[in-house]
Each structure stands twice: as C-alpha cells, then as structure tokens.
Amino acid sequence: MQQSPTSRAVLVTGASRGIGRAIALAFAARGDRVAVHFGGSRERAEAVLAELPGEGHVLVQADLADAEAVGSMVDEAAAGLGGLHVLVNNAGVFTAHPPLETDYADWQAAWQQTLAVNLLGPANATFRALPHLIAAGGGAVVNVSSRGAFRGEPNNPAYGASKAGLNAFGQSMALALAPHGISVGTVAPGFVQTEMAREVLDGPGGDAVRAQSPYGRVARPEEVASAVLWLASPEAAFSTGAIIDVNGASYLRS
Ligand SMILES: NC(=O)c1ccc[n+]([C@@H]2O[C@H](COP(=O)([O-])OP(=O)(O)OC[C@H]3O[C@@H](n4cnc5c(N)ncnc54)[C@H](OP(=O)(O)O)[C@@H]3O)[C@@H](O)[C@H]2O)c1
C-alpha cells in the first residue's frame, strides 16, 4: 500500500459515532490513517470505517474503563497502523445523577463509571501511547473535554469533575512530554449536536440551551473536529497545554 509521506497514524477513541466519527473523518480527509476505536457499537464503527476516505484505516475495540483492555487496544492500533503519531482521547459518558434525586448506590456507580471512562481511560490510553509516540519521533495527544469543567454540571457533577481532571491532566502531560516532541492539547466544547446531548437538546430546555450562544445554536461535530485537527498539527506544537473553547461564546473565560 502506497502511503503519503505526510500521512500520520491516528487513534481516535469513541469514533463509532458523534464527535469521534467527525474527528476520524477529518483526519482521514487530510490523508491520515485512522484507528477507529469503539466500545459497544461495533456495527456503527464498521460503518464509520467504511466511509473514511483513503486507505490503511483499522478498527479497534476496548472498554475504556478496563485498563488492561485499553493497553492492548493502543498496541493493536499502533500495530495495525504501522506506528502512532496522534492519540485523540474523545470517548466519554454523560450519565445524569442529580445530587438530590439520586440514591447513594447510583451516586457511587455514576462517579465510578464517569471517572473510569472520562479520566482514567484517557490517562491509561496516553500512558500506553507514549512508547509509540516516542518511537515515531514525537506527535500529539488531544483530549476532548467540556465546557462543563468550567461552568459546572449540576445534574452530572461527576462529569464536570472528570473533565476538570482531564484539563489538569492535559496540562501536566504538556509539561512532561514537550521534551519528547509530543504536544498535548485540549478542546472544551459546549453542547454539540450528538446522541450524548439529544435528551437535553430535544427536551423542554433545548431552546434555552441553544440560546446560550449568540449564534442561537449548539456546535456541529465537525466544528469540534476542526479544533482537534489543528491542535494535532505540527503548527500547533507551541500551543501545547492550551484548552480551546468551542462553545459559540456561550461561556466566556479569560
Ligand atoms: N455532545 C456534547 O454536547 C458534548 C459536549 C462537550 C463535550 N463532549 C465530549 O465529546 C466527547 C464525544 O461525545 P459525543 O457527543 O460524540 O458522545 P456520543 O455520541 O455519546 O459518543 C460517545 C462515544 O464514546 C464511546 N464510549 C462511551 N463509553 C465508552 C466506554 N466505556 N468504552 C469505550 N468507548 C466508550 C462510545 O462508543 P460505543 O458506542 O462504541 O460504546 C461512542 O463512540 C465526549 O468526551 C464528551 O464528553 C460532548
């Protein structure tokens, strides 16, 4: 198989749908080879794989809450792609557990699952990607965080905490990995039109959520993918440690 000299090997977690699918398509459209990771949605991941332009893409599976499975999945992706230049930690869960309406058992389950998938998953995937990124002579890690890390998540406090943790993780790793030519960037979207946000966006509060932005809408998955693509580019290397908002000015911070 003939590969473009600038074709990178890219692992995108949670690429079976939503934002991850858009990220996989964006990398493939610029000539990169993509490992399409999924958790439970095999058929949908196969459909994403089939729609990617270019060649050399592979499918990999792991429950991100399973540290062993994550490690094997990263190695499998690198083996299938012939190395690894970019890791995008995109997969995540958004499980409601309103503090005053949730029993203690459900509260604990929500916290454990959310932190396991949204924070420990990316930490483990990054750890296991490091030997491959270093062997490739450097590269990039991009984490998909959330506006909720800054704005708060009253019905999903574990989610907000997991994303705040992911922001801090990305900043620490930016410092640790720059000497190895690896940049670490973070994207913090507000609401995005995907299945994760469907209940909120299609519910009685949907219009109020759209009105949070002066554009009067939420983000499209492609708009998040565009920021991820930039953060993973060599041109963005000196922006390592940055957290880019993609929220249509629905929440401004300085
Ligand atoms: N949508 C929003 O409004 C919004 C806003 C801010 C940030 N984000 C963040 O953007 C990222 C993508 O969200 P999305 O809206 O595209 O969500 P989505 O449509 O619900 O897709 C979630 C993806 O994560 C994967 N995933 C979930 N749990 C997993 C697990 N235990 N193991 C492996 N994979 C797992 C799913 O894979 P399978 O289906 O194959 O299991 C799926 O590919 C998440 O990190 C989310 O927190 C989303």
Please, could you describe this protein's structure?
There is one protein chain. By secondary structure, this protein is α/β, with parallel strands linked by helices. The protein has one domain: Rossmann fold (3-Layer(aba) Sandwich). The protein is 46% helix and 14% strand. A seven-stranded parallel sheet has the order 3-2-1-4-5-6-7, with helices on both faces. Strand 4, helix 4 and strand 5 form a beta-alpha-beta unit. Helix 1 crosses helix 9, helix 3 packs parallel to helix 4 and helix 4 packs parallel to helix 6. The model has no long low-confidence stretch (mean pLDDT 97). The site of NADP nicotinamide-adenine-dinucleotide phosphate (NAP) has 28 residues, from helix 1 and helix 7. NADP nicotinamide-adenine-dinucleotide phosphate binds next to helix 1 and helix 7.
Descriptive terms for the model:
oxidoreductase activity, alpha/beta, 7 strands, 254 residues, Rossmann fold, single chain, 7-stranded parallel sheet, binds NADP nicotinamide-adenine-dinucleotide phosphate, SDR family oxidoreductase
Explain the layout of strands and helices.
Elements: E1 9-12, H1 18-29, E2 33-38, H2 42-51, E3 58-61, H3 67-81, E4 86-89, H4 104-135, E5 139-144, H5 148-151, H6 157-177, E6 182-189, H7 195-202, H8 206-210, H9 221-231, E7 243-246
Helix pairs in contact: 1-9, 3-4, 4-6
This protein binds NADP nicotinamide-adenine-dinucleotide phosphate.
